[in-house]
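pinging the channel bc i need a second pair of eyes. not urgent but kinda urgent?? the chain im working w is below, pasted from the shared doc
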Amino acid sequence: MKASLVVGVALVAWSAVAQALSPYVDAGRASGGTLDAAVADVEGKLVGAGFRVLGRYTPRGLPQHAIVVASDEGLQGAALAIGGSAIVAVPLRVDVRADGSVRYANPEYWARAYLRGDYARAEAAVRAASDRLAGALGGGRPAGGDVKADDLPGYRYMLGMERFGDRSELAEHASFDEAVQAVRANLASGVGGTARVYEVVVPERKLAVFGVALNDAEHGEGWWVGRIGADNAAALPWEIWIADRKVHALYGRYRTALGWPELGMGQFMTIMRHPDTTMQALEGVARKP
């Protein structure tokens, strides 16, 4: 009886662990010897596996990192079929480092959080994209902490903090086209120290998502990511999405905590102004120029 009980407890514990997902995957090393060469190697592997490279950038203040953003046709189609905020699940992010190490955002983790109750509708596409990413870059060790899969749809860092969509609306325009034009113009002019990393615009569905670099020396990525740990830089860049006439972004106490689930409260307090300053910068991107 005792032996059976021990085995049963062990199986329950294993099951709980098995249901946890990590936000990132440590992949195989890129070749090249320099950051630019490593990025070129990763981009070539992604294109060779059927992904489309949307953009790349080196976050200001993080010179040893370059983020490559790609899309997958199947995943994009599934997200568009769901519609609305599901567009934020389209970009796939890969952190390439000067030493050749590569860490990419785990598609299942982020899709479960971003698609929430609609995840099942996209699950086959998410798993297919995950398998192809692993094949292209080397499916390796889970990294960056973990969250139970069942907790991701309603994820929040702690009681009282924001969930997906809370405090997300930035601006409303007269039309979808006007909203897209406003975001493009503001990013092109560098409002609030921002810059465009990528964009996916689907006019027929009135949906769009933009990747936004936060370059402000005092409040941008180099400051807050540097404080909480650049190992999870594959969380970058921040997304702004447009659904019909409205522009949205995820609030920092949700979006940053999702990307750094092991973040301690003491660390969070060292960047306590980050959620508001980031939202202020994104509000500048969203409003009419």
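so The longest helix spans residues 119-137. and The CA atoms of residues 127 and 233 lie 23 Å apart. — does that match what u expected or am i reading it wrong
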